[in-house]
Amino acid sequence: MSPTEIAIYAVETKAIIHILWGLLLISTITLVSVSIMHASLRVRLRSQKRRESHFAHLIAARAAQIKALEEQLAQAVAVKEPAVADLKAEVRRATAIRARTEERLVEQNAEMATLRAQLVAQSDALKRMGTAIDLGESA
After folding, report:
1. What is the pLDDT of residues 20-62, one digit of tens each?
2. Tell me, what DSSP letter sits at residue 1?
3. How many CB atoms lie within 10 A of CB 65?
4. Over the stretch 97-132, which tens digit does the pLDDT of each residue have?
5. What 3 state SS string does 36-55 have?
6. Whole-angstrom Cα distance, residue 27 to residue 96?
7. Rounded distance, CA 17 to CA 7, Å?
8. What is the C-alpha separation between 82 and 78, in angstroms, rounded?
């Protein structure tokens, strides 16, 4: 091997070493960036799990509140149902009283009309008698 061949091989070897160092540097940068992304994803995953756990607790609390409100509503309805039934019964009773009162009023009006007719008839009869008496005295 001649000194020129050795120099050519040295230049080629130096170029290959630079290329390999460049590839190693690119690999290192890629590995570091992948590690950073992996750590970032783990942090996000942990925060998402924490948030999900928090939301699960909120949902459970809301479900408990809904259940308590449903129980209160059921109790309120149970308390109001007798009152509503009493009110309905009172309305039915008042309606029945009103119907009976209207019937009595119609009957009383019919009776009053009959009595008026009788009174008018008696009045006419008395007038005729009075006229007959007046005629008898004057004769």
Report:
1. 999 999 999 999 999 999 999 999 999 999 999 999 999 999 9
2. -
3. 10
4. 988 999 999 999 999 999 999 999 998 888 887 777
5. HHHHHHHHHHHHHHHHHHHH
6. 98
7. 15
8. 7
